[in-house]
Amino acid sequence: MNGQILFYDIYDYYYPAWWKQPAGIILIILAALLVISIIVLIIWLKKKKSLSPEQCALRDIERLQPSKCIIRQDFKKFYFALTALVKQYFAKGYAWDVTDKTDDEFVVFLEKQAQHQAFTEIFKKIIQGAVEVKFANVDVIKSQAEEDWKNVKTFFVQEVKKRSLEKGSSRHNKNKKI
């Protein structure tokens, strides 16, 4: 052999690289599929988050159905979720720091803002009943919970319409300038 040392002369056994073996190829394909799935999931979640605060609130209020409430605890959870939903909307939609406020503090805050007077009056009535249900364990009439739910839902529907009209008119004004 002319003094040349071959690869097989040094080592007793030779194993091909793991990525050249069938199991390695399958592992690489699975890893690539996992990465692609994660990327698709991230894109889908970002697209889902692109809803406006009004649309998110409307979606959440649709999920929160008073017709599902049967016992006192259900109504208690319903009113906690309803008031939290309204606070979250104003926190996201208007960048007001209201999530840490009590219900009464929130009503006072709304009155000071003077933007939603009609809703403030409705929300005061909702809060009066909700406080008794949430903290005094008072039984609630199902029709009252449904009425409160409808009032909040109507407010969010009006907000969605108002915001979409504002966006439409701003687009219309941009087109006129061009």
Structural write-up:
The chain is built from seven helices and no strands. With 178 residues, it is mainly α. Helix 4 (72-94) runs parallel beside helix 7 and helix 6 packs antiparallel against helix 7 (142-177). The longest helix is centred in the C-terminal third of the chain and has 36 residues, at 142-177. The chain folds into two domains: 14-49; 53-177, no CATH class. Helices cover 74% and strands 0% of the residues. The chain has helices spanning 7-10, 22-49, 53-63, 72-94, 103-113, 117-135, 142-177.
What's a quick, concise take on this entry?
This protein is mostly helical. 74% of the residues lie in helices and 0% in strands.
Number of helices: 7
Helix vs. strand class: mainly alpha
Secondary-structure element order, N to C: HHHHHHH
Mean pLDDT: 80
The largest β sheet comes out as: none
| Uncertain runs | none
Helicity level: over 70%
What attributes characterize this protein structure?
mainly alpha, 178 residues, 0% strand, single chain, 7 helices
Blueprint (SSEs and pairs):
Elements (H helix, E strand, L loop, with lengths): L6 H4 L11 H28 L3 H11 L8 H23 L8 H11 L3 H19 L6 H36 L1
Helix pairs in contact: 3-4, 3-7, 4-6, 4-7, 5-6, 6-7
